[in-house]
Amino acid sequence: METNEKTLLIDKRYTCPICDKQIRAKSVKSNAARFVNTMGDLRPIYSNINITKYDAVCCPNCGYAALTQNFSNLTSTQKKLIKDKIQTNYKSHEETECDFYTTEVAISRMKMTLLCTITKEAKASESGYVCLKISWLYQALADEIPEDAPDAAAKKDLYLKEAHNAAMKAYEYLSNARMHEEYPIASMNETTLDYLLSYLAYEKGDYQTAMQFLSGVVSNRSTSPRLKDKAIDLKDLISQAKE
Question: What span, in angstroms and rounded, lies between the C-alpha atoms of 10 and 7?
Answer without folding.
Answer: 8
